[in-house]
Design goal:
22 helices, SBP, signal, Extracellular solute-binding protein, 13% strand, alpha/beta, eight-stranded mixed sheet
């Protein structure tokens, strides 16, 4: 445990006093929220891990005790969705998950943040909400035009190869198309006992860029027409292709790999290719933990017959409508996403900042160049393409989580050989229509 003297030195070194809002610190040593306990929950990933290290500083200045809960992504979403739907008081700060953002915001389960931001007694002008990427703010905004979350991660999907040396030795360049990717994987799979491909088993996220690249989509015309389109010829072809990547070129057990497991396999050199966000792929450049630092290569998501469609996701911190500690919760969010904390996270290696001042800073850009490849540039390109293309609209409609689960099941059934691509996608289509009708969607 950090001693008080060491804690004070650390706080002074990183300008912690400036990170914490004045109203939360109090005057003359009086702490407005002394004795308050905040229950904060996000899913387990890099940024919350950093915040956990620095929580003692926030607690020392404010008197607030923070219980930070970070379960896995699916477990977090299940718990948060249930708790928020009851408007209970179990949580004071939550992650506003991208695929649930429309459901949680427009159902009235979260607290509008505009009044906190506009109140100079609660928010300093220096905090500057306008410094956050507009592409990150938009999904956190409700139909009423109010802001319900502050983004802490904006992810653009990229492609990475941990053993790109095997690719060049085989006479290939980094694959740019779906056909090229298969050709490369056929050439390098199992070379030096390195499997060819792995991806996060959240297939409602990782499959969609391939679905759209083949000319398919999740819905007919989201958000206006939510009739599912999972059994079209294009969707079936995409599912067959994607399942082949996992089945033919994946490691043993690759069907169930999480994002963390996939990243670890890349860092250890057990698997070569993957599609993921910068926050994960940048870890291949960590000299302390990656065995593939010198052999890694990176590129854009492959394009298919219909084009290139890298996924984009945004997660933010919000305050549940049922929280009994809303002002203290806002103080925590301000601290967690203050310029000082976000810049400190960059210095610690965090790869998915949401403040433009961080993204354009030399401190960030210099850390995102690995083996001559500018990962930050690739990520920004992917996010710009997603924002301008409008093809991510499927993901923030209220009923997408139901379809997301059906896609997870369908891809697993195809990879395992239990159903053909056509059978699995027809089953997903039928089940999705039934789920959407039960949810009251107009289709």
């Amino acid at each position: 445990m950090m001693q008080r003297r060491d804690l004070l030195k650390a706080m002074a070194a990183f300008g912690v006093y400036a990170m914490v809002p004045a109203f939360a610190r109090g005057a003359n040593g009086a702490k407005k929220y002394d004795g308050v306990t905040l229950n904060v929950s996000t899913f387990s990933t890099a940024y919350p891990t950093l915040l956990r290290q620095w929580l003692p500083e926030f607690e020392a200045l404010t008197g607030i005790k923070v219980n930070l809960d970070t379960p896995s992504f699916p477990v977090y979403n299940q718990r948060a969705d249930l708790e928020l739907s009851t408007k209970g008081a179990a949580y004071d700060v939550v992650n506003v998950t991208f695929i649930y953002s429309s459901r949680w915001i427009n159902s009235g389960w979260l607290t509008p943040l505009d009044e906190f931001i506009a109140n100079p007694n609660l928010t300093s002008a220096e905090w500057d909400v306008h410094d956050f990427l507009q592409g990150g703010i938009a999904p956190e905004t409700g139909r009423d035009g109010k802001l319900y979350g502050i983004p802490w991660v904006v992810e653009g999907m990229l492609a990475g190869a941990s053993r790109f040396d095997l690719v060049t030795e085989a006479g290939f360049k980094f694959p740019d198309t779906t056909d090229e990717l298969v050709n490369v994987l056929q050439a390098v799979n199992k070379k030096q006992r390195v499997a060819g491909y792995v991806t996060d088993s959240h297939y409602g996220w990782t499959f969609i860029p391939y679905l759209q690249a083949f000319g398919g989509n999740v819905f007919r015309n989201p958000p206006d027409d939510l009739f599912p389109t999972l059994d079209t010829p294009e969707a079936v072809a995409a599912a067959d292709y994607f399942a082949r990547l996992i089945r033919e070129f994946g490691p043993n057990g690759g069907l169930t790999y999480t994002a963390d497991q996939s990243t670890q396999a890349l860092k250890l050199g057990r698997v070569n290719f993957s599609d993921s966000s910068l926050a994960y792929l940048a870890q291949l450049g960590d000299p302390a933990s990656s065995r593939t630092l010198k052999t890694a290569g990176f590129g854009q998501m492959v394009q298919g017959p219909a084009g290139r469609f890298p996924g984009m996701a945004v997660h933010g911190l919000g305050i549940p409508a049922g929280s009994k500690n809303k002002e203290a919760a806002w103080a925590f969010i301000q601290w967690a996403l203050s310029r000082q904390v976000t810049r400190r996270a960059i210095q610690a290696g965090y790869g998915s900042p949401t403040r433009r001042s961080d993204i354009t800073s030399p401190a960030y850009r210099s850390k995102q160049i690995i083996n001559g490849v500018d990962l930050a540039g690739l990520s920004l390109s992917a996010m710009d393409r997603a924002a301008q293309g409008g093809y991510m609209k499927y993901r923030t409609v209220d009923v997408y989580p139901q379809v997301d689960q059906q896609l997870n099941k369908a891809i697993a059934l195809i990879v395992s050989g239990q159903l053909s691509a056509k059978q699995a996608m027809q089953q997903a289509q039928t089940a999705s229509i039934a789920d959407l009708k039960r949810a009251g969607a107009k289709i």
